[in-house]
UniProtKB/TrEMBL annotation:
This is Glycosyltransferase family 92 protein. The lineage of its organism: Eukaryota, Metazoa, Ecdysozoa, Arthropoda, Hexapoda. Keywords: Glycosyltransferase, Membrane, Transferase, Transmembrane, Transmembrane helix. Its EC number is 2.4.1.-. It is a single-pass membrane protein. PANTHER family: GLYCOSYLTRANSFERASE FAMILY 92 PROTEIN. Signal peptide: none annotated. It is found in: Membrane. GO terms for molecular function: glycosyltransferase activity. Belongs to the glycosyltransferase 92 family. It comes from Plutella xylostella.
Length: 544
């Protein structure tokens, strides 16, 4: 009886809502909204006066409404005003202008970064990256997503306003970093839409359905029918006081050799020489450079390691959502990391081999296991290596030698092909072509722990939230580590190049015990050296 009574109530509510929608919405909403020229001008940046007080109807969803129930209209005494959408320059430039401004939500402590249109799922969504002070978003704070659709290129043609409760999801595990005092937590706001967007629309976040908004973003559907590329690397916030230009060139060229098609880099503060390198590769179209969402170099009050890790997630997820319709895979990497296929020639060949090995790309990511190549352990191999029967070239003086007694440990060795590439680089740049770490470092830490410092090939059509190492959430809900498909170590590894084992790594002793030789990267030698021979000159931090 109780169940039948509940069904009667639901059916009655459905009928009432239906009558209201077809009568009130059609007769009042449509006719009045099309006549609201002043409102439309304001919504798209005009300076028209506010509309006169009148009863208006906005279609809104209730968070408590049962699944599948149609929304009931919400009556407002006037159409809410929408602020002009602020002009924002997302691209980085060497002038080091102010980072993108975050927009406030009236009545809440939430700050908004950027909005995106997500049509990967049966129900289209508006996604907004945000942040708030504290660890858990307060349950008592209700946020609403208000979407203003426009029917044509005419800025005044606002045909509907839709309001829905915004789902809030912290981009962080609550068990991480329990010791910090003041923190800011990254947040994803998700707002379902009744129908796909067919053109540019404006979205705002409010705490009351009928109140004037204090923020506004333009979202435009991407009409791409297929991906533009396979692999995009995402590099979180670059903040280096020292010159990293040489390491950066080596890293960029190695990734290009491996089949990366685009690298998105978020720049905080780097040296002038490094800026030159970034600008050079941007001019080729291989790099896209963005301002960091949060400028760590100017943050003093909460500039801690754990807070920076939180802040980086805004950059990584911005990279994810920028590439939803552009790139089949994204790969979060730091500039001291290389995903190295051991058998395949490149990343495309690697993904094919991984699929043949059991990876179903309906799984959100393939997890690549990490090994460290510390600078200070590289000499341990050299003290026992005194001879080489092959023909050698010493970069020190470019003189050919045939001598089995040559001390290899004290010299950089170039083979025949290296010599050709080195001479080509020297003729153009007036300096020697140095052998990169990828080819020079041949001793690594032991392979310990399947899930210690891994990186992932992430499937963009499935990942909802990206983290530095693996997805945090997907279309099927939150993930735990065993749900990631573990790529066989025999197929691929993450080469992680560091000067030493520092305080950021736990239990350094296990990485320094039982180190072992690893020459897997040497199979790339000819291709990498050829690429470096035409790379930017570094002698005077200029570009040739």
């Amino acid at each position: 009886m109780q169940l039948n009574g509940r069904r009667v109530v639901q059916m009655t509510k459905y009928l009432v809502c239906g009558v209201t929608i077809f009568c009130a919405s059609w007769m009042v909403c449509v006719s009045e909204w099309r006549a609201a020229g002043a409102w439309g001008g304001r919504a798209w940046g005009g300076r028209a006066r506010a509309p006169p007080p009148t009863m208006r109807t906005i279609v809104a969803y209730s968070e408590e409404a049962p699944a599948g129930e149609r929304p009931c209209p919400v009556a407002c005494d006037r159409l809410p005003e929408l602020p002009a959408v602020p002009a924002t320059n997302w691209s980085w430039s060497r002038e080091r202008g102010a980072p993108p401004a975050w927009q406030a939500v009236r009545g809440a402590s939430t700050l908004l970064y950027r909005a995106y249109y997500d049509d990967r799922f049966p129900v289209p969504y508006v996604r907004i990256l945000a942040k708030f002070p504290g660890r858990r978003f307060p349950e008592e704070v209700k946020l609403y997503c208000r979407t203003h659709r426009k029917s044509s290129d005419n800025a005044k043609d606002i045909t509907s306003i839709e309001v829905v409760t915004a789902e809030t999801r912290e981009i962080w595990y609550s068990t991480w970093d329990l010791g910090s005092n003041y923190i800011e937590t990254p947040l994803l706001l998700s707002c379902p839409l009744t129908d796909p967007l067919d053109g540019p629309s404006t979205v705002s976040i409010v705490t009351e359905t009928c109140e004037d908004a204090s923020n506004a973003f333009i979202i435009t559907p991407n009409e791409n029918k297929g991906y533009e590329r396979k692999f995009t690397v995402c590099v979180k916030d670059l903040l280096f006081e020292k010159d990293i230009s040489r390491d950066l060139v080596e890293w960029i060229e190695a990734n290009r050799v491996l089949g990366v098609e685009k690298i998105d880099v978020y720049v905080d503060k780097v040296s002038k020489a490094t800026e030159n390198i970034l600008e050079h590769y941007r001019s080729t179209g291989f790099l896209r450079l963005y301002n960091v969402p949060i400028n760590h170099s100017s943050q003093q009050n909460i500039n801690t390691l754990w807070q920076r890790r939180r802040d980086h997630l805004i950059s990584l997820n911005d990279c994810l959502y920028r590439n939803l319709k552009e790139s089949e895979f994204i790969i979060p990497l730091d500039i001291d990391e290389i995903i190295l296929p051991k058998i395949a020639d490149n990343l495309l060949g690697l993904t094919r081999r991984l699929i043949n090995s059991g990876w179903n790309t309906s799984q959100e990511s393939a997890l690549v296991q990490n090994v460290f190549f510390f600078d200070h352990i590289q000499n341990s191999d050299k003290k026992n290596s005194k001879t080489n029967a092959s023909e050698l070239y010493l970069k020190r003086d470019s003189v050919r030698l045939r001598d089995n007694s040559v001390d290899i440990a004290s010299n950089e060795i170039l083979d025949d092909s290296d010599y050709v590439f080195s001479e080509k680089y020297r003729a153009r740049c007036g300096e020697d072509l140095l052998v990169p770490k990828l080819l020079r470092h041949t001793r690594r830490s032991p392979h310990v722990g399947l899930y210690e410092h891994p990186k992932s090939l992430m499937v963009t059509r499935l990942v909802l939230l990206a983290f530095n190492h693996y997805p945090l959430a997907s279309r099927v809900g939150s993930l735990v580590r065993p749900m990631h498909w573990l790529a066989p170590f025999s197929e691929v590894q993450l080469n992680h190049y560091k000067a030493s084992c520092n305080s950021a790594l736990v239990s350094c002793d296990k990485y320094l015990r039982n180190t072992q030789p690893d020459r897997n990267a040497l199979r790339l030698r000819r291709r990498v050296m050829r690429a470096l021979s035409t790379s930017p000159c570094l002698a005077h931090t200029g570009i040739n």
